User: Which sequence fits this backbone?
């Protein structure tokens, strides 16, 4: 799995967009980008994933650069409940099963 | 639909004892994975079970073991507990589709070893 690099922490004002970057410069052509988050004292929660096209769901948007070496998770209108550690994970979609490698993540603090 | 259920939520053991943690996956999910989370090492993959067979294994000593039953429920066991085994143990299940790596996590079992 390709290595990912994320800033250790970020702040965001409530109601504003939170843009969380992830660098994955060694990503392979068959590797997807996954985002999970972990709110304090809870298990991680799947947010979104993508290969090369931008993706959007009810929780967030994922923007992947054309060269796929970096991506940004966007929470369009951050609320206090979005305060969490956000993990960017790169992994190929194959038959080897489910096995996520979590890095340090970004601790997002949404402030009123 | 009920989520992933882990029992117990909290556990206190002493060094040298053994412990068994339980995980009930989301109905219809056949893949169950276990992770250990500590402040120092973060979230680390322990093992994955699919259809009662261990499919993947992380880099943990043999004191850590698991199994899966025919109803997809899973247990993990840690023998000869050490202080360093104090951690949050998380279980995750995955749907039986081609979209792998999407995992649904339980709230975890917090194990304290004294």
Assistant:
């Amino acid at each position: 799995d390709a290595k990912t690099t994320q800033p250790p922490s970020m702040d965001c004002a409530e109601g504003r967009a939170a843009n969380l970057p992830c660098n994955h410069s060694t990503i392979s052509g068959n590797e997807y980008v996954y985002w999970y988050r972990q709110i304090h004292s809870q298990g991680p929660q799947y947010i979104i994933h993508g290969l090369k096209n931008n993706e959007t769901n009810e929780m967030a948007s994922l923007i992947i650069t054309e060269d796929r070496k970096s991506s940004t998770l966007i929470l369009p209108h951050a609320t206090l409940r979005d305060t969490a550690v956000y993990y960017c994970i790169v992994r190929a979609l194959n038959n080897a099963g489910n096995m996520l490698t979590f890095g340090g993540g970004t601790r997002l603090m949404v402030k009123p | 639909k009920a989520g992933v259920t882990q029992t117990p939520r909290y556990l206190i053991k002493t060094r040298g004892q053994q412990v068994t943690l339980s995980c009930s996956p989301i109905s219809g999910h056949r893949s169950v994975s276990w992770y250990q989370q500590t402040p120092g090492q973060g979230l680390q993959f322990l093992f994955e079970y699919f259809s009662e067979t261990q499919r993947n294994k992380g880099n943990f000593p043999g004191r850590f073991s698991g199994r899966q039953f025919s109803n997809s429920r899973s247990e993990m066991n840690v023998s000869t507990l050490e202080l360093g085994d104090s951690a949050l143990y998380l279980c995750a299940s995955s749907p039986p589709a081609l979209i792998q790596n999407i995992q649904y996590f339980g709230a975890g079992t917090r194990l304290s070893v004294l």
Chain A has no helices and nine strands. The beta strands of chain A are 9-13, 18-23, 31-38, 45-50, 55-56, 61-64, 70-75, 84-92, 106-111. The longest strand of chain A covers residues 84-92. The interface with chain B takes residues 32, 34, 38, 41-46, 49, 87, 89, 91, 93-94, 96-104 of chain A (CB under 8 Å).
